[in-house]
Amino acid sequence: MEVVNAIGRRKAAVARVYVSEGSGKITINNRDLATYFPSSILQFVVKQPLNKLNVAEQYDVKINLDGGGFKGQAEAARLGIARALVKINPEDKAALRAEGFITRDPRAVERKKPGRPKARKRFQFSKR
Asked: Across-strand partners of 4?
């Protein structure tokens, strides 16, 4: 089997994911998953699509992550892995969609408006 690639995005984070047959090794920016994401919760988030389909030991995953914070990066990686697994086996799409792994979370930072301190916050109003 050749390498299957997919892109996952979340907020400002972009994950380029390459999935190939292997022993279940996950490499992020040439580092091991546990060293890149020390938090076990974020490691769990990245592995969710693989665990859902019970294929965590069948594929090697290489991810290039860029931008955003660690939470956004973990969720971008999750989306990328899910998209790559669907490319490998389209029958898995329904199971992954039921868990919400296929949906790209559209929420991003709202832009700052002119004449205001932040996107929605206003300067203090003074009547006199």
From this structure: 19
